[in-house]
Amino acid sequence: MTHLLLGLPPLSAAHFASIEDRVARLLDTRQDVVIMQGEALLPLEGAIRATAGPGTTALNVITGPYGQTFGDWLRVCGATVIDLTVPFHTAVTAEQVRAAFAEHPEIDFVSLVHAEAATGNTNPVAEIGEVVREHGALFYLDAVASIGAEPVLPDAWGVDLCVIGAQKAMGGPAGVSAVSVSERAWARMAANPRAPRRSYLSLLDWKERWIDGGRRTLLHAPAQLEMLALQACVERIEAVGPDVVMARHASAAAATRAGALALGGGLTPYVHDAAEAAPVATTLRAPAGTVAADLVARALAADPAVPLAAGGGALAKEMIRVNHYGPEATPGVVRSSLTALGAALGEHGLDVDTEGALRAVEAAWG
Ligand SMILES: *Cc1c(COP(=O)(O)O)cnc(C)c1O
User: Using a 6 Å cutoff on CB, does residue 45 contact ligand 1?
Assistant: First the structure.
């Protein structure tokens, strides 16, 4: 018996390096790209532990749940952490970051999430990058939810550590991820006695034993299924065209937003300003007197295929997430998501206009 997923030969070092190069092209970066054999939290944590320590003063921007996690890691590393928290219905502005530097000129590290699939906002990284560069701080960016859905340009934006994962807009596997690392970031790690070494979390191991050796010998057997899947999803984006893939996500977000407003019943976009809404996923505020998690359960009972979820934790009461990313960024998925939500709101006795919502989706798709 043969099986597609079994009995694969090990992935060669040259093949591994070629997939890194493909990811570097996707990011339009000349920095080193390290692919890590795990979900994106691996490079997200590894990059913080490598670059932050007791001498670090970190500005940690919180626009959703991941920022909270990064702040916790930074504190564990001994860094002094200044949290800049903005309400989840909005994005952070470059002005707010500038004001934080004015108040704390000692800031030498900035952590930011680009797009938040969990809260539906997206932050102006290019503008924030200018401020970070003016002050010479190291810039750490979580681009897991933006890659594939909107431009991610670490070199142009001055990002020193840019982490991506394949599982959102790239439509790939969750078990592999990548980080681009600037020369400045490598220098910080080399100077940090607490940076993980001889550890699965270690980026320096990849620098010293893989990159500096000319990428000839891998540190351990690569996860070949995930690597092949990562290669396949980058190839697919190249073949279709990154602009086309990103435009599909932007259309899905615009259509979901317009459709939700036309649906009525008190449903409103969670992120107030459309310009601050992420292309990867649209969040909606459940109408007054309803519970988001209950509406999602009813909608999924009406159509189990739609990519709906309630917000995490305390947000489960008020936030509905439409995860229109990867293969779900299609007009059909947006239509069926709104139809299912319309059914849920109708069952709740609310007055909805599903036909009107579907017309708004067509008009907004563009
Ligand atoms: C999805 C996502 C990740 C990956 O984390 P999971 O909890 O494993 O999904 C990291 N950062 C952001 C901003 C994400 O949206």
Answer: no
